[in-house]
Amino acid sequence: MKKLNNNELPTNIVKQLENIEQQYGKKIEIYADYTDQEFLTLDQANHQAKGEDMIQVIITNEKYNDFVLAHELHHIELELSDEPSISCAVTTGKQDNDGRVLSIANSVFETLEHATIVKEQIADGTFTDAVKAEYLRGIDAALTPKVQLDLANMRFYRTLIMLDGMVFGQHEHDEDWQHNFPTSFKYATKLVEIVEQNDLTVPFQFRRALVNILDAYNEIIISNGYQGMHFHTFLNITPVISKRQLRLSLNQVYQIKHSEFKNRATGKDAFDLIAMNDGQSIATLNLDPAKVTPEFYKAFYQHTIEEVFKGEDIKYLIR
Predict the structure, then answer these.
(1) Confidence at residue 82, expressed as pLDDT on a 0 to 100 scale
(2) Which of 29, 62, 131, 240 has its CA 20 to 30 A from that of 316?
């Protein structure tokens, strides 16, 4: 793995890199770990935090390195900005189940980011017609994976792949997909309509779209006779509220729900803080189950939202 210095990067990438570092006080290091790639995919550059102030980016596609690097830097910039995020502090007790829910949620989350990133990459010149063609070739290959799945699960999988292809590929292959995969196309169309009904640069609308797409995807799963994924109570999604709401008592906006899952940190019963307007958990509370009594609820609910958020260290965004 080779570290890339700024003098080895295109001018536009260096400028993007320096803007992020200056705006957010982070140091970003770029590494090349090139491998043979049959298709261009959006995960051929990835990043991870290295302590509080360092972010490491690793690129694996040499031919399209400028595109995948610019793409990953746009993801980093969105994550560092005022954008809602997904977290999870509970467990089903089965690692595979936990991973499946998080994988789906993260896929939807990244697709929502892609709705903004595709516009940025067209504007900065890194997403050309040639790159789009290669990206869509990869999506087409992903829609016919070399794995055995039953029909319903193949449709669930294709729906998420197609959703991302519609968003980042700007509907260019819709006609082919509708012909070849009509049911998955119908499902994906329902989801992409939610994407396109919201201004995803606005945190409140990004969160609304995220919750609504997960809801719609869950309905697709249930309609095929499978058990739902419990996105509302398994995941926490950053709340976006007004300053006025911070002064309200907790029970005016949120309710505490004794979770069907266990607190991952303690192994004990978990308690979710659920938004009353959309039923989505915003946090897993640090409560001792032995002390959660009717009297506790009565007293806890009288605290202001701001007091609870501060006491429970709950991240929030102002609408």
Answers:
(1) 87
(2) 29
Which amino acid, 46? N
Into how many domains does the chain fold?
3
Task: Tell me which residue of 8, 44, 51, 2 sits closest to 26, measured CA to CA.
Answer: 51
- Give the burial string for 13-37 (b: 16+ CB within 10 Å, else e): beebbeebeeeeeeebebebeeeeb
Q: How many CB atoms lie within 10 A of CB 207?
A: 26
The per-residue pLDDT for 147 is: 87
Taking residue 121's Cβ as centre, other Cβ atoms within 10 Å add up to: 20
The dihedral sign for the CA sequence 193, 195, 199, 203 = positive
Tell whether 134 and 204 lie within a shared domain.
yes
Question: Same structural domain for residues 104 and 206?
Answer: yes
Tell me the per-residue pLDDT of 24-68, one tens digit each, with 9 for 90 and over: 999 999 999 999 999 999 999 999 999 889 999 999 999 999 999
Strand 54-59 and strand 27-32: the pairing is: parallel
Angle in degrees, 0-180, between the axes of helices 203-223 and 151-168, rounded to the nearest 10: 160
Average pLDDT of the residues in 171-178: 97
Whether 215 has a pLDDT exceeding 90, the answer reads yes
Q: Which of 48, 80, 112 is the last residue of a domain?
A: 80
Stretch 84-89: mean pLDDT: 96
SS3 94: coil
Same domain, 179 and 280: no
Q: What is the dihedral of CA 97, 103, 104, 110, to 10 degrees?
A: 160
Tens-place pLDDT, residues 258-286: 999 999 999 999 999 999 999 999 999 99
Q: Which of 180, 201, 231 is the last residue of a domain?
A: 231
> Nearest to residue 189, comparing CAs of 212, 211, 171?
171
* Predicted pLDDT at 148: 86
Question: 86-87 and 90-91 as β-strands: parallel, antiparallel, unpaired?
Answer: unpaired
